[in-house]
Amino acid sequence: MTAAATHLAVPPVRRAVPLVLAGALVATAIAYPLSSGAARDVVSWTIVLLGSALSVAHAGLSRGARTGAGVFVLVALTAVVFESIGLATGYPYGTYTYSDTLGPTALGVPFLVPLAWLMMAWPSWLLGELLARPVRASFRRAARIAWAAAVFAAWDVVLDPQMVHAGYWTWADPTPGLPGIGTVPLTNLAGWLLAGAVLMTLLDVLVGRTRVGGSPRVGPAAPLFALGWMTLGGALAHAGWLGLPGSAAWGAGLGAAVLVVLAVQHRRAGRR
């Protein structure tokens, strides 16, 4: 093993950290539809804390400590800016209010919200990177950002109705919405696409400037597993336990569409 390889190697114990966090996240997510009241609030906090820890740990282990720290700061600041503007003006998401259940706030934004962005943002960027691999090199960065922003917004298609159902926030006018989802307006989806495009562009620049040579040093399996479970597992929970068939259908459909794209890419790559 060369000196460079030794420098880049991640000890097996540290390499296992994202997998352990992803496993704990999935186990906690399974508990969500089976709980209620104050216990469900605790489960929600735990899911977000585990998901944000997974994002930071994986970013740091796979691309270096500077990237891990940068992801945490960048996503948290971007979330607070977008959410505080949204609360004050109704743009770009529409008019909504948070409940007191989410606890302490900064500029009116509960601390839990930037952590939820963090939970969602890094896996979305990783999946965008994977989906953009077949694209011609000159267009790959734009494709990576576009895919990542779309995944980021699609994840919220499942998450937002669940959070409204739990009473964590309320929309002043939830219509028009996606077919089957009567509690969240289409303006929210448009807002998430805009926020996602901005955030993923910033993340792309950050990773490009801070990553260590030879990265990624750890594969994306753990964050992508968490993303897949939170989308497809969330859809199952919505259909079977939470009484949210509309968001269940959207989650299953969007998740299946991504899987089909990945399968087609894999098949084409195998023919080369």
TrEMBL record:
Tree of life domain: Bacteria
Natural source organism: Blastococcus saxobsidens (strain DD2)
Pfam families xref list: Caroten_synth
Keywords: Membrane, Transmembrane, Transmembrane helix
Protein name: Carotenoid biosynthesis protein
InterPro entries given in the database record: CruF-like
Segments traversing the membrane: 16-36, 42-61, 68-91, 111-132, 144-169, 189-208, 220-241, 247-264
